[in-house]
Amino acid sequence: MQTFDNHLDLCFSFPESWKLDGDDSMPDTAEVSVVSPEGAFWCVRLDRDETPPEALLQQAIAAMQEVYPDLEVEPVDEQVAGEHLSGVDMHFFCLDLTGTATVRIWPTSRGKYIVFSQADDALLTECKPIFHAITASLIKSK
């Protein structure tokens, strides 16, 4: 496992075979992504503004609906590493493939961590536990 730690409240572990892609240029947010060799990805952003979690979820859904008009959205609440995360699972079609994107929001005193992941459904069974483990490592680092 590799560890990402930008000392801006983002610290997590991810598989050796995944590549890091990040941008710390925005003053009120910190964001970084990791991408699997097959193209699945996990992304986290720390949002320090006052936007309510539900509004953030609606923004994510609207952005996905622009690209995938037939998007199916399912509300989700889950526990990860002892913390409650609310969000949505979004199912979509792209060419001949089906895909799933997830958004989870974890509110903390530092701000709201917004975790987005996406994978082709053929990879989802393999990637879902990896996404969960990366998110759990983020939570445990706090």
Topology at a glance:
Layout: E1 2-5, E2 11-14, E3 19-23, E4 29-35, E5 41-47, H1 53-67, E6 72-80, E7 83-94, E8 97-108, E9 111-120, H2 121-140
Structural category is: alpha+beta
Q: What does the average pLDDT come to?
A: 90
**Counted beta strands:** 9
Which fold name corresponds to the CATH topology? Protein Transport Mog1p, Chain A
Termini distance?
A: 18 Å
Residue windows where pLDDT falls under 50 for at least 5 positions = none
- The radius of gyration over CA amounts to 14 Å
Q: What is the overall silhouette? A: globular
Strand line-up of the largest beta sheet: 3-4-5-9-8-7-6
Quick summary of this structure?
The chain has two helices and nine strands, in the order E-E-E-E-E-H-E-E-E-E-H.
Task: Walk me through this protein's architecture.
The chain has one domain (2-140): Mog1/PsbP, alpha/beta/alpha sandwich (Protein Transport Mog1p, Chain A, 3-Layer(aba) Sandwich), CATH 3.40.1000. Helix content is 25%, strand content 49%. The protein contains 2 helices and 9 strands, in the order βββββαββββα. The chain has helices at 53-67, 121-140, and strands at residues 2-5, 11-14, 19-23, 29-35, 41-47, 72-80, 83-94, 97-108, 111-120. A hairpin with a 2-residue loop joins β6 and β7 (83-94). It starts with a strand and ends with a helix.
